[in-house]
Write a structure and sequence with these properties.
single chain, 244 residues, mainly alpha, 7 helices
Amino acid sequence: MASEHSLFKDSDRDAFANLDRARLNRLLRVATAMTIVLGVSVLVQLLIPYRGYFPADLQDSVFLSAHRGHFHGWYRFAFYVHIVAGPIALVQGAALFFSGSRRKRIPPWHRVIGRVQAAVVLFFLFPSGLVMAQYAMAGPTAEAAFTLLSLATAVTMAMAIRSAMVGRMTQHRLWATRCFLLLCSPLLLRVVVGFTIATGTETDFAHRLIAWTSWLVPWFLFEVGRKCHDAAHRETKTSRLHTA
């Protein structure tokens, strides 16, 4: 029974709630579309230098010329594994993210791609990223940042697998989202580095700072947003109980 002191009737509150949800859904669709367009454009920019990687152009390729002194042995092998596994993991991660965001009727291919994604991340992207991290151009600080990024990517993937295996799908979505954010960090790194080049602010300190912020900032914002969402959800439930 609704409280006599309630300002709105239940039908009015439901109407306002439905309107807010509709607006939120529209905003989410627009944001999703913009994110996809930005992600695809940056991914294309990320793939353009590949022309200098097959075969390896140690003179004109900006990245390879900076690594010519150790572009052999394990580093060379890890480099090619990483640049092939990276885009695959990004595309698969995007497909898993958008298909897994539905709470009902998840496509049957989601699980298949998820298993492939786990293998790509844990057996190819993670170890190759660890090797490459030890030769970061910005020195030990960047080496530590990329090493922890590789470890965090592997851990979040392992936790996503574990939670899915025991049927904790809410936790699975959270860990899988964290892993996808970490996989997207090279795209953000590319955008920010391009900005520093365009504005003439590119320095070793900027590269070291970007090595950390390109993955820590998105992760931090995700956790803050999740906490705010959970708090708002609990407050809504509490207010409904009080007005019932």
